[in-house]
Design goal:
- The strands form 14 sheets. Strands 1-56-55-54 form a 4-stranded antiparallel β-sheet, with no helix packed on it. Strands 2-3-4-5 form a 4-stranded antiparallel β-sheet, with no helix packed on it.
- The longest helix is centred in the N-terminal third of the chain and has 21 residues.
- It has 2 domains: 335 residues, YVTN repeat-like/Quinoprotein amine dehydrogenase (Methylamine Dehydrogenase, Chain H, 7 Propeller), CATH 2.130.10.10; 297 residues, 7 Propeller (Methylamine Dehydrogenase, Chain H), CATH 2.130.10.10.
- The protein is mainly beta and 647 residues long.
- The chain is built from 1 helix and 56 strands.
- Helices cover 3% and strands 49% of the residues.
Length: 647
Amino acid sequence: MMTSPTRPATIAARSLSRAGVRFVAAIGLFAIAAAAFAGPPDLVWSGGGHTGFNATAVTPDGQTLVTGSAYDETIKLWRTSDATLIRTINATYGGVVALAVSPDGQFVASGAYPVFGADEETVKLFRISDGTLVREFHGTLTDAFAVAFSPDGTQLAAAKQYEIEIFRVSDGALLRTLTGHTFNVLSVAWSPNGQLVISGSGDKTARIWRVSDGQTLRTLTGHTSFVSAVAFAPTGKAVATGSFDSTVKLWTVATGALQRTLTGHAELIGSVAFSRTGQLASGSWDGTVKLWNPASGALLRTLSDPSITNVDDVAWTRDGRTLYAGGLDSHAHKWRIQDGALLLGFGHHTAPVTAVVYSPDGTTFASAAKDLSAKIWQASNGTELQALTGPLDVLNGIAYSPDGLVLAAACGSPPPDTRDPRVFLWDTTTGDVLRTLAGHEGGSTVVQIEPDGQTVVSAGRDGTIKFWDLETGGLLDTISGPADPMRAHITPDGQSIAIADSAGRIEFRRLSDGALVKTITSPQSNGLADFALSNDGRLLATAENGYGNNIKLFNVATGGLVRTLAGHADGFAQSVAFSIDGSILASGSSYSREIILWGVATGQELNRYDQETGWGLDPTSSIAFSPLGTTFGYARNDATVGVANLP
């Protein structure tokens, strides 16, 4: 162990500055009575994005963009005027691979992968206004790679393995099954008059079907790979097909004759779509959208941006003036057709959010994610203020300095995949990297900034806790710590650091010399997901793996178990946090899809919150209370963050 001569002075400063924190908590200016609330909390705002998405659609009025993801299993609704996230719909355990908005703009249909053992269909209908599941369409329980509404909205076509199933929307009845393809159907579209359907398949063909009797009228051959995209021209006399062979082909419906082949894309075609004015757009995995004149085959414009890695889906507005595109880079984009200007990007984080924290004055809210970035948000309305970049690896934890001017992040994937083990320090006003700290072999997992505002504390997978000078980046001291630190909190008296490992042990180590002061271990624990210290330092709460009774409160002084809370009966507890005055404990779970607010004094449930809280593989991963005690913020594994009012 290395010991620095400056350490005793910093310990004294640490204790002094903590007194101010205890004073704020003690006077209780913003204390909340731990009694049953009158109603559930209200969502203030949510932001973030997808962890990659596959489907894009826009409502007929052009006011809402709908995106779907096979990766985070959600559908998200965005306001097209300013890219604000309106709502997340927990769609399907199989992941969303296809979307269609009804002609009246009231519903969105989704296609998904089936999940073995899950009691759900792969084609569903949701109401856009509130995200409610309206019905599931009972057909072949297999992949639904494409869905499309008939022009009058009464029928829904779904590509299901080698077939196309036609459903009645009003009651979900299966009306007809179109058979003939010899490989998976990847795309489907209706003719403008609603009498025909075109499908594209992995058998390298497209077929035009008469819906009334299910007969194949035309088989279109010529592509040399999967036909991944199909669309009818607004006249109904021509169709476009896109393929993994990187070409777009135009065909005559009446005869099935090939009109022309459009070339220029460098990768597979993800989507083709006609505007109502007759322009054709093609989106490709080469990261571009190309606009074509179908009559002549002329390339009119290429839409691109350095940030776009691929385009999987495109959607026009009804007036043909705007085009939306999305892809596996986890962002959607809005272009103005007149001049090709990129107007908006939709989405913020693009990977699971690992940690959230409020600034000391409560005006901003920061989040860290596995997309190699941190974000600073306006706490009151969710405006993104800063995008903090620089790390070459995932971010595991973040912390504000006491004055709110510096944000620190711990970085690094577990060995042998560690790409960047450094600790990053950013200027929160400019977003610039102030400096980086050498970090830990195998990466750092937790970071804190001491109340003196001068010392950064990090813990890493190398089994050490390091102390750094914030101004110079110099290493001040190194003490022993757990080999797999997961969470850490400085005790309110500034004398110790509590560090938890995934096995359920929480070690308290004296900051002055690293000596082990005590260990708190949860009885019958199946593993620890999170822990929190109350601001008076008297209580410790744990969130544990297991079903039910997975929230525990401990007396810090004695290490004894105070009580076990009923917790989340239907899913592991993933996160826990104390309110500023210590009267409320919040816990988040995964499969139970909720945050529960508990009275600390009684252990009784006060309220449940389930807006934008995730589900299944996308649990609430971190919770933080505002210093003002009026709101709480949280993070999700589907790249979403949210802030809610306390009732």
